[in-house]
Amino acid sequence: MCCDLKSRFLLLYATQKGQAKAIAEEICQQAGAHGLEADMHCISEMDKYNLETEKDPVVIVISTTGTGDPPDTARKFVKKIQDTTLQPDHFAHLQYGLLGLGDSEYTFFCNGGKTVDRRLQELGAQHFYNTGLADDCVGLELVVDPWIDGLWLALKEAFLLQKEKEGMSSNALSSSLSAAPHVGHELNLSSEVQNLKLEDERLRSSDVLTQKLVGIHLVASARDSEPSLVHSVPPVSQSALNIPALPPEYIEVQFEDTHGENPHVSSLISVGTAFEVPVTKAVQLTREDAVKTALLLELDIADTVFDYQPGDTFCVICPNNVNEVEELLQILGLFDKGERFVCVRVKQGTKKKGATRPQHIPERSTLKFILTWCLEIRAIPKKAFLRALVECTSDAEEKRRLQELCSRQGASDYTQFIRDSNVCLLDLLHAFPSCKPSLNLLIEHLPKLQARSYSVSSSNLYQPGKLCFVFNIVEFLACPARPVSRKGVCTGWLAELVAPLLHCNKDTLDTKGGSSSTEKISIFARPNNTFHLPADPSVPFMMVGPGTGISPFIGFLQHRQKLREERTDWEFGETWLFFGCRHQDRDYLFKDELRCFLENGTLTHLKVCFSRDSSTAEVASPKYVQDVIRLYAKEVARVLLKERGYFYVCGDKKHMADGVSDAVVDILSMEMEVDKLEAMKILAVLREAKRYLQDVWS
After folding, report:
1. Where in the chain is the domain with CATH 3.40.50.360?
2. Can you give the residue ranges of the FAD-binding FR-type domain (predicted)?
């Protein structure tokens, strides 16, 4: 990866699900058009770069995982730079620019990037370019695209400054940079939509293609007066388009006539050890007429070394839906080849720098195995994928629409009809039937099929050798851009897997009963979780968990009950639980168990609310947990401030957790007689001290 020192910069990425890597690859690809060369590495590959001696500018793209942690690939790097023995000038020689990825649905937005950025500053490193923080909640591209656009001038200035500091003439550098291909090439397309094509192959390698559409006449019928996934309206339909560069192909797939065995699914994880464990019980916790269906599954971990604490999360390795895999094979014309083994390798002569076979793709397995266990076929297609699909589409109008959807001019259409509609590859192939992508394209652009994480809903002390968890069966209702409804990848699979066992238990909600099962699933631990009981049992704590958010708190209470039975000489603090659901008689999860915890003293206070039940009282009962919390303002303030207790929140981020934190801020403001800003600072201190903890999802 050696390159001309005048034009080289170090490009590091830290990714959890592949987004940061894809953005880094886009930067790497665009660099050539600007006369620069990116020396790109995963931040975990610390044997391939050395920031202690790095003289060239450094660009870092880093995502955030969990509730604010750096991605797994950055853990060693973060641990290294957080060494307290490092001097304040350790990185005084370093010039860097950082792009953080996050989701503002979560409290610690872009905290992975912020953590690295803050520590590099503390160690003397200097920005050559302002830090960018991209929000997946509204669309990463809203920040990513302009940040990359501005990067090239910042790098040029950094190189010039570097040479001036070295006392060298910058004339040679200036001329080499100015000789870089001009980015704003324009491509004149004089044909009409029916014959739309890219005429200049040379321009495909530039980072932007500007298309001038001449003589296009679009007559919209009444039903086409509104934009849709397959149809655009002015101004997008009449605009010249700025579309991404065509990503170079780099994967080669060859079918083999040999036979063998597929890898075990446990080999697909990159961190930790996977355990294949039997499902010993399945119970439906909700009534048939409940809005959502909640299931409890019990796993037998007695024959494994898998260990956990109440409050931990763990991951389930799940496959794609078998019908969707077969449908995809059918559309690709590969249905008869699903069981054939394929060899996946890097394409010879590829223009993609540093191309390697994706780690989540086995070098050799059946095609169906790859589509079932390795690729996230439900993933929302990135714009780079749409750009590649343009080249696989024969119909001119379909080609144009795909170009619009990946263009800057079509950004709002992309958000509305693809991102917000949860459109996946299958939906696109149905909507654009002339699009026939190659198998290698899917492997290049579809991300790794991620294991799904769940909160533990049990205590190993209370139920030795058992692990329980609770989930709602996720439902994606049909919409205009996606005319079919679907269940969640993992929850749908689990529900189908345990259906026979569930049938055996459907006449009882006794979670102590159950039948044996031969079905097994593969699980692995998820590290770095701080959502645990206070180390001191005498410390009081409050739990807020509506719906399936109650899951980890059942484990908390089981654990506390067992400790109370075994440690009669210990002092135990009071416990509060705020629970809410829609209907008292349909989805009040663990109602009997909670009553038992109250009766035996494990749970001191239980406060419940029901959002959809009508009230006959003169004063309406509160509907949501955040409303109930406000009724106990003095108690909340006492537990958090005077008794230095803990406050746990689990459940939906957008519709519940934010409301709860707002309620706590108001309580702190009122009880401490301070303004809201000061109360928010107090809550921030509680978060920092790990006494206000969240396990939330969006």
Report:
1. 7-161
2. 272-534
Read off φ and ψ for residue 287, nearest 5 degrees.
-75, 160
- Two structure tokens written together for 213: 């559409």
What does the alpha-carbon distance between residue 480 and residue 384 come to, in Å, rounded to a whole number?
A: 24
Query: Distance (Å, rounded) from C-alpha 26 to C-alpha 672?
Result: 51
CATH architecture of 541-696: 3-Layer(aba) Sandwich (3.40)
- DSSP H helical segments within 9-168, as ranges? 19-31, 75-81, 111-122, 141-165
Instruction: Quick: pLDDT tens for 140-197.
Output: 888 998 999 999 999 999 998 888 777 654 455 455 555 444 443 323 322 233 233 3
Residue 175 tokens read as 């001329």
DSSP secondary structure letter of residue 424: -
Q: How, if at all, do strands 313-317 and 575-581 pair?
A: unpaired
**Three-state SS across 129-148?**
CCCEEEECCCCCHHHHHHHH
Query: Could you write out the DSSP letters of every residue in 244-260?
Result: EPPPPP-EEEEE-S---
Tokens of 487: 């269940």
Task: Give the residue-averaged pLDDT of 388-416.
Answer: 96
Query: Taking a C-beta distance cutoff of 8 angstroms, is the pair 405, 388 a contact?
Result: no
Other C-beta atoms closer than 10 Å to the C-beta of 48 total: 14
Residue 640: DSSP 8-state: I
Instruction: Specify the 3-state DSSP secondary structure of 618.
Output: coil
Torsion sign across C-alpha atoms 427, 414, 375, 277: negative
Are the CB atoms for 284 and 293 separated by under 8 Å?
yes
How many separate helices (H) and strands (E) can be counted in the chain?
20, 25
Under DSSP, is residue 354 helix (H, G, I), strand (E, B) or coil? coil
Sequence-separated (6 or more) residues with CB below 8 Å from residue 417 = 227, 228, 229, 405, 423, 481
Specify the domain boundaries for CATH 3.40.50.80 within the chain. Answer: 541-696
CB-CB contact of 428 with 435 (8 Å): yes
Q: Which amino acid is at 233?
A: V
198-207 contacts: CB < 8 A, separation 24 or more? 204/245, 204/246, 205/32, 205/33, 205/245, 205/246, 205/351, 206/33, 206/181, 206/245, 207/29, 207/30, 207/33, 207/183, 207/244, 207/245
The 10s digit of each residue's pLDDT in 511-563 is: 444 455 579 999 999 865 689 999 999 999 999 999 999 999 999 999 999 99
578: nearest Cα among 609, 602, 548: 609
Kind and range of the H or E element at 298?
A: strand 294-300
For the stretch 637-664, what's the b/e string if a residue is b when 16 or more beta carbons lie within 10 angstroms of its beta carbon? bebbeeeebbbbbbbbbeebbbbbbbbb
Residue 694: its H or E element: strand 692-697
SS3 of residue 680 by DSSP? helix
- Please say whether the beta carbons of 645 and 542 come within 8 A: yes
CA atoms within 13 A on the CB side of 10: 21
What is the Cα–Cα distance from 481 to 634, expressed in whole angstroms?
49
- Beta carbons within 8 Å of 214's beta carbon, 6+ residues apart: 188, 189, 190
Contacts of 243 (CB under 8 A, 6+ apart): 208, 209, 211, 387, 390, 403, 406, 407
* Residues in contact with 353: Cβ distance below 8 Å, sequence separation at least 6, in sequence order: 1, 28, 29, 38, 40
First to last CA, the chain: 40
Residue 681: DSSP 8-state: H
Q: Give the chain's mean pLDDT.
A: 87
- Using CA atoms, how far residue 372 sits from 303, 321, 379, 493, in Å, is 28, 7, 13, 12
